[in-house]
Amino acid sequence: MTQRGKFITVEGTEGVGKTTNLEFIRNWLQQHKVDFISTREPGGTPMAEQLRELLLQPRQEPVDQTAELLMVFAARAQHLNQVIKPALEQGTWVLCDRFTDATYAYQGGGRQMDTALIASLESLVQGELRPDAVILLDVPVEVGLARARDRGDLDRFEQEDVAFFERVRGAYRNRAQGNAHYHLVDASQSLEQVQTDLGAILKQLKEHWGS
Ligand code: TMP
pLDDT, tens digit, for every residue of 74-108? Predict the structure, then answer.
């Protein structure tokens, strides 16, 4: 019987260096002969990518929080059933740029929505499925926002204020605390050090999972 693949997610607030570090992780997995796919949320299927556009596009119309939450989970249901679960069942690892921890952080922390409500949607959409490992890239909010704002046009989330991102970061850090499947990386260090830390985490996970 094929061993189920492992599900690794990468999380963090804006400007933590997710893109660069995901590239590093992909290279590491390739070099270590891991069979994997790389995907993202919101998104990962054509329909879920359309929902992503709807979610990120700045707009005049105020966005209802419940509508936002349901769109995030609608995209996730599609992505999970079309892409993530079939890959895991075939023994392929899945590397995902954000997943439900982002919902607890942005909708729970940032928007201050009820986390019990998020948990009930999580059960509805995912059943028992949770990431095997969550890599949380952490930087002080000001540092991250300055980097994100240097990139130019801001999406609907990036336009939020510092207090919003402080709550997002706090929610991420709370979830990571004392929880063995979270790996918090201080992403304010030099890129070289961040990637040394990431390499050590990946090595440890691979050994632990015996693959
Ligand atoms: P990013 O992938 O470029 O970071 O953009 C995705 C944005 O969507 C980011 O600002 C966080 C937000 N988001 C949520 O608010 N909730 C979620 O569940 C997910 C996956 C992302």
Answer: 999 999 999 999 999 999 999 999 999 999 999 99
**CB 123 within 8 Å of CB 169:** no
> Atom 10 of ligand 1 has which residue's CA nearest to it?
157
Residue 76 parent element (H or E): helix 65-79
Where does the chain show beta strands of DSSP type E? 7-12, 36-40, 93-97, 133-138, 182-186
121 lines ligand 1 (CB under 6 A): no
Give the ligand 1 atom nearest the CA of 55. Answer: 8
Does residue 106 line the site of ligand 1, with CB under 6 A? yes
Q: How far is the CA of 12 from the centre of ligand 1 (A)?
A: 9
Q: How many residues can be counted in the chain?
A: 211
- Model confidence pLDDT, tens digit, residues 143-171: 998 888 888 889 999 999 999 999 999 99
What is the distance in A from the centroid of ligand 1 to the CA of 64?
Answer: 16
Domains in the chain and their CATH numbers? 7-209 (3.40.50.300)
What's the mean per-residue pLDDT of the chain?
Answer: 96
Q: 41 CB less than 6 Å from ligand 1?
A: yes
